[in-house]
C-alpha cells in the first residue's frame, strides 16, 4: 500500500515538474519574441518590466562599459549600449528624455529585424529596458511624453509613451500609405504638426492633428519642404519651425538634394497657418547646414552654417542666433565647421559636433564661447547612425551621442565635469582646440 502511494506521489511530482517546465519554456519563447510585450489597462497600456523569460525574470539589462576620462575635459565616458544591434540616440533637435533628465530613449535595430524602442535609466546604473517595436518621432519632454509610430496591419498607429510612468496610449491612426515622415508636437500637446504631403511639383502640405478631438486638417501649403525638420517652440504652443530646401528634392532613399542656394527657415503659426520667413541662409548668411533648434523657451533659435561648402571662408562658418522678426541673425560662434546642434533645457548652452574631427563641444548662448567636451571617435558617413547627434540631458549632467568607434553604432554618455559649464561664462574659456 505504501509502495503504491509512494509511486503515485512520484508520478504526480514528475507530472507537476513537466507542467512547470513546459510553462517556463513556452513563456520564455513568447516573451523573447516580443509578441506579448503589452497588455491593456483601461485606455492605457502598461509596459511590462517584470515578466517570465524562462530563467531570466526581469527585462531590465545592463550593457554599460566604462571608457575612462576624455583627455580634453576630464569627462567620464560611458558606453551605454554594447549589444549586437545598431543602437542610436534620437535626433538632437528634439530631446527624447524625461523632464528630469534621468531617462533617455534609444532606437535599436537588431540585424534583419524591425526598429525597437529602448529606454536607458541613467540614474539606475545606466540600465536598459526594451519598450517594444516602434520608431520615435517627436517628444514633449517637459511632460515626459514620447510619441512613436508602429505599424499594425494596413494602418500606422501613433502612440504616446509616458517615459516615467511607463504607460502608453494610442493618439491617432494613419492609413499605411498616408503616414508622413516628420512630426512635431506642441508644448501643450494640443497639436501635432506633420508632413510633408506632396501636392504637386515642389509643392507640399503640412497638416495638423487636434490631439484633443482626434481630427486632422491642412495647416498650410509650402514649396520645397521635402525635408521640413519640424520643431515646435517649447515656449509658444502656436509656433512650429519649418526648414525649406529651396529648389531641393528627395532622390533615392536617403538621398537629399538641398538645391543650389541651400535651405532657409520659416515659422508657421499653428492656429492660423500664417508663414513668417526668416532671414536665414543665402543671401543673409552662408548656406546653412540644415541643423537648427529652439533656445529653450526664449522664442529664439540657433542654427549652424554648412560645414563642408567648397570655397566657404572659415569666418562665415559657425553658429548663428536669430529671433523671429529680426532683420539679420547674430553670428554667435565661429572658428570650427560646426554641424549638428542641440540646446540645453534651460537655454544657456549649445552642443555641437565638428564636421571634420567629430569632436563634441559645448558653448554658451550668452557669450558664444565654447570648450571641447570629448572626442566622439565616430566616423561620419551616409548612415544616420554614424552621426554623433549630441544633445544635453535636461539636468545638464550628461551629453548623449552616437559613435561607431567599436565598428557597430552604439550610444555613449559623457558626464559633464564639475565646473566645466561655469568656465563657458568666464573670461578663462578658450575658443577652440588648436
Explain what this protein looks like in three dimensions:
The chain is built from two helices and 34 strands. It is mainly β and 434 residues long. The strands form eight sheets. It has a six-stranded antiparallel beta sheet, with no helix packed on it. A five-stranded antiparallel beta sheet has the order 3-9-8-7-6, with no helix packed on it. The N and C termini lie far apart (92 Å). The model is unreliable at 16-43, 48-58, 310-314 and 429-434 (pLDDT under 50).
How many strands, what sense, and barrel or not for the largest sheet? Answer: 6 strands, antiparallel
Approximate helicity band: under 10%
> What gross morphology would you assign?
globular
Radius of gyration: 24 Å
Q: Which structural class do you get from the secondary structure elements?
A: mainly beta
pLDDT averaged over residues:
84
| Number of beta-strand segments | 34
Strand fraction band? 35-45%
Distance between the termini: 92 Å
Uncertain ranges: 16-43, 48-58, 310-314, 429-434
Number of helices: 2
Trace the largest sheet across and list its strands.
Answer: 1-2-13-12-11-10
Amino acid at each position: 500500500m505504501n509502495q503504491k502511494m509512494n509511486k503515485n506521489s512520484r508520478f504526480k511530482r514528475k507530472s507537476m515538474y513537466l507542467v512547470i517546465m513546459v510553462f517556463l519554456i513556452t513563456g520564455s519563447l513568447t516573451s523573447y519574441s516580443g509578441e506579448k510585450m503589452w497588455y491593456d489597462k483601461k485606455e492605457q497600456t502598461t509596459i511590462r518590466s517584470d515578466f517570465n523569460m524562462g530563467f531570466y525574470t526581469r527585462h531590465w539589462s545592463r550593457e554599460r562599459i566604462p571608457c575612462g576620462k576624455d583627455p580634453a575635459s576630464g569627462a567620464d565616458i560611458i558606453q551605454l549600449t554594447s549589444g549586437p544591434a545598431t543602437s542610436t540616440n534620437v535626433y538632437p533637435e528634439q530631446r527624447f528624455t524625461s523632464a528630469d533628465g534621468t531617462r533617455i530613449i534609444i532606437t535599436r535595430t537588431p540585424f534583419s529585424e524591425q526598429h525597437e524602442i529602448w529606454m536607458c535609466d541613467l540614474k539606475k546604473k545606466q540600465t536598459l529596458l526594451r519598450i517594444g517595436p516602434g520608431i520615435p518621432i517627436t517628444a514633449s519632454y517637459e511632460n515626459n511624453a514620447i510619441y512613436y509610430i508602429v505599424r499594425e496591419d494596413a494602418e500606422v498607429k501613433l502612440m504616446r509613451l509616458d517615459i516615467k510612468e511607463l504607460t502608453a496610449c494610442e493618439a491617432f491612426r494613419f492609413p499605411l500609405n498616408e503616414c508622413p515622415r516628420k512630426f512635431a508636437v506642441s508644448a501643450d500637446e494640443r497639436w501635432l504638426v506633420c508632413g510633408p504631403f506632396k501636392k504637386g511639383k515642389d509643392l507640399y502640405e503640412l497638416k495638423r492633428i487636434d490631439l484633443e478631438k482626434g481630427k486632422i486638417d491642412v495647416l498650410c501649403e509650402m514649396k520645397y519642404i521635402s525635408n521640413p525638420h519640424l520643431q515646435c517652440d517649447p515656449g509658444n504652443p502656436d509656433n512650429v519651425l519649418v526648414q525649406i530646401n529651396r529648389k531641393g528634392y528627395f532622390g533615392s532613399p536617403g538621398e537629399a538634394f538641398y538645391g543650389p542656394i541651400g535651405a532657409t527657415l520659416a515659422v508657421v503659426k499653428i492656429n492660423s497657418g500664417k508663414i513668417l520667413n526668416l532671414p536665414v541662409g543665402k543671401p543673409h548668411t552662408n548656406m546653412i547646414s540644415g541643423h537648427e533648434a529652439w533656445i529653450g523657451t526664449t522664442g529664439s533659435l540657433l542654427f549652424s552654417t554648412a560645414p563642408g561648402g567648397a570655397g566657404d571662408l572659415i569666418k562665415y562658418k559657425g553658429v548663428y542666433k536669430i529671433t523671429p522678426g529680426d532683420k539679420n541673425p547674430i553670428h554667435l560662434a565661429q572658428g570650427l565647421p560646426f554641424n549638428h546642434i542641440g540646446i540645453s533645457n534651460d537655454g544657456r548652452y549649445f552642443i555641437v559636433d565638428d564636421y571634420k574631427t567629430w569632436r563634441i563641444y559645448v558653448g554658451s548662448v550668452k557669450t558664444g564661447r565654447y570648450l571641447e567636451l570629448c572626442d566622439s571617435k565616430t566616423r561620419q558617413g551616409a548612415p544616420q547612425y554614424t552621426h554623433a547627434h549630441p544633445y544635453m540631458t535636461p539636468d545638464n549632467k550628461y551629453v548623449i551621442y552616437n559613435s561607431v568607434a567599436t565598428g557597430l553604432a552604439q550610444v555613449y554618455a559623457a558626464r559633464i565635469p564639475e565646473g566645466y559649464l561655469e568656465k563657458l561664462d568666464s573670461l578663462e574659456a578658450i575658443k577652440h582646440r588648436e
